[in-house]
Amino acid sequence: MAPAVKVYGWAMSPFVARALLCLEEAGVEYELVAMNPEAGDHLRPDFLAKNPFAQVPVLEDGDLTLFESRAIARHVLRKYKPELLIGDGSPEAAAMVDVWLEVEAQQHHAPTDAILLQCIVVPLRGGVRDQAVVDENVAKLRKVLAVYEARLSASRYLAGESLTLADLSHFPMIHYFMETEYAALVEELPHVKAWWEELKARPAARRVTEIGVQAAERWTQEKGRTAVN
User: Fold this and answer.
1) Closest to 113 (Cα-Cα) out of 8, 13, 213, 34
2) Phi and psi for 157 in degrees, rounded to 5?
3) Cis (ω within 30 of 0) for the bond into 123?
4) Handedness of CA 130, 136, 140, 141 (dihedral sign)
5) Which of 165, 164, 161, 175 is nearest to 205 (CA)?
6) What is the pLDDT of residues 38-47, one digit of tens each?
7) Distance, CA of 203 to CA of 163 (rounded, Å)
8) Burial class (CB in 10 A: 0-12, 13-18, 19+), 110
9) Most exposed residue of 56, 158, 186, 210, measured as fewest CB within 10 angstroms of its CB?
10) How far is CA 197 from CA 13, 23, 186, 194, 201, in A?
């Protein structure tokens, strides 16, 4: 019997990885419906019926269809592992989860995304990165991470002493960021580094990383065959 939960997208996407990570943490059986951005799978009418913005991931959970990775993450945990949304269970702890989810979305994401675009995506597409953009966003990210260092010096996790979505939501972008030459921004901050090392060592994170690596290998092989042909 096919799993009731399906995720549509390409596994190398950090946004797809966010959805997969939450499913793995919650122990939910799911099917990853692989898509090919270069073939324009996200522009096909059947996919646009699921997400008119032509972005991945899309999640189907029974009769429910969702898009936007952060909304998907919240839904998965609210339904299957709600403790990851509420910390120790108090209203105050849940509020801190919300605060740090907003920090991830509003403060951490933009500079990290800009660095990844220039250092990883642009070269993959055959372009030359704009170092001025990289330098500007490295400076921004350094300031953001200084706030994280202060926070993590006072608590084990961002929202307190329990792992929550506030931590997990950072994993996909930091995972790729640590593949750039700017990984020292994390490594030079002892509490941020320890937090990151613990996060990436989680079985769910290792599994999502493995799925992404396998997808990257398949993509490389397909690109090689295309070049030969």
Assistant:
1) 13
2) -125, 170
3) no
4) positive
5) 175
6) 899 999 999 9
7) 14
8) middle
9) 210
10) 21, 21, 10, 5, 6
